[in-house]
Amino acid sequence: MLSAGPTPKVDKSVWEFTITNETGKVYRWTWDEFMALPQDDVSTDIHCVTSWSKLGTSWRGVKLDTLFENVDSDCEFTMAHSYGGYTTNVPLKDLLDGKAWVAHQFDGKDLAPEHGGPARLLVPHLYFWKSAKWVRGLEMLRRDEPGFWEQNGYNMYGDPWREERYW
């Protein structure tokens, strides 16, 4: 339950998720609009940079493919932004084709704030710092840029199978 700062209090009545493309166009979903989208149940393993893994975890959320259906962008990179100011970079190819979700439930229960609730990014094939807690949006980028932990020595990509922990 490591975090880059204090747990923000995010009320679902003001929560929104946005995708901002390179022209500045913003695609936006309120909590109610987000919850009306098709939902996936996901069973997956997760891996933390601090050398632990949790096998067979259960999540519920919206596939990033669904959110990107009508987004117009030529960019190959994204920066995830969270309530509280946290950022992490993720290549777009790692968010699409059923590889990532905006998750709002864990083990059949709403995500607790200390675990990223009301919603967090879930990118299970990368180290868990890429699964940004309290996610509020994605910014499309023309080139890869480091987020919070990447600026502080973590690997730009974070593949657990290659043990890409640090620079």
From TrEMBL:
InterPro entries: OxRdtase_Mopterin-bd_dom, OxRdtase_Mopterin-bd_sf. It comes from the Bacteria. It comes from Leifsonia tongyongensis. Gene3D superfamilies: Oxidoreductase, molybdopterin-binding domain. Pfam families: Oxidored_molyb (PF00174). This is Molybdopterin-dependent oxidoreductase. Residues 5-149 form the Oxidoreductase molybdopterin-binding domain.
